[in-house]
Amino acid sequence: MKKKISLLLVVLMLVTFMPMSMAVSEERSMESSQKFTVNGEARDIRAYIIKGKNYLKLRDAAAALKGTKAQFQVDYDKEKNLVMIETNKPYEDLSNTKIYSSQKKLWATMKDMDILFNGKERKLKSAFIIDTNYIELRDLAKLLGFSVGYDAPTKIVAITSDKVKMPCLLDFELEDFDGKKYNIADILAEHEYTLVNVWSTEYAQCKKELPDLTKLANDYNGKAGFLGVIHNIEPLTSTSSDYDKKTREENITTAKDLLNQAYAKYANLCPSQAAEKYFNFKIKAFPTVFIFDSEGNILETFIGVGAHGFYEKYERALKKYIK
């Protein structure tokens, strides 16, 4: 009877500790033939498929997600002997180790890997392949808050995460005809892309393009921003003469008439001294049209008159960025 009880106790102990022993297992892994994109852009990521799931190196994932809201930095805590993940930090490759194998099929040790996630210990599903931990992609997605989709016909794994909003590079004011001031950063922040037309009431081509710009602004209302900067309405200073003030008022009147004739409803503003200085370095002729992103980067520049119509020329440029 005692022998039976002892045997039963041994069995119970084995059952009790079974989950611990089952935490680590060996599985066959195969190099993934799938392609990866991040926000629609192709990324060169080496991954392995294990039981239908993609596993990739943590540093490869960090490099791919750099510049998105899911971006993170990877480091190592020597004292705790743990890999560290710090979110909201652009990835910098601090490791000189690049271990990959030419073999397509390899054995992987499956386990839950302890990590430090923003200073707190967490676990990630991992596969240990050739001295390197590969992380399950969807498990990492849950942790960092990005989404993963798959298109079977094209074999594309689509990773999606919003881009990080960077501060605007530009900081100068523009003002309307009544003197109300607007910061360029606030204007550009309203749309992902903004067409800015720097023009003068003195040039025929500037006047000629206004109807086309008005039509384009109406057709792309809500999709892109439109702004006119009337360069020859010069800012007043403490040294401005009566003649300067009179000329400014005359140019404002002319600009209003031209905009009314073109039925232009998008904003047309006058430059401050800082704005005038900025554009003077950028323009060589009138009109000059820029396409800015919301961070103040110039994506396209059109100087003077092109070979194509105004509408077609600017629409073709906008379509590069607005899908």
From TrEMBL:
Transmembrane segments: none annotated. Residues 163-323 form the Thioredoxin domain. SUPFAM superfamilies: Thioredoxin-like (SSF52833). It holds the Pfam family AhpC-TSA. The keyword Disulfide bond applies. GO terms for molecular function: antioxidant activity; oxidoreductase activity. PROSITE patterns: THIOREDOXIN_2. GO terms for biological process: cytochrome complex assembly. This is TlpA family protein disulfide reductase. It comes from Fenollaria massiliensis.
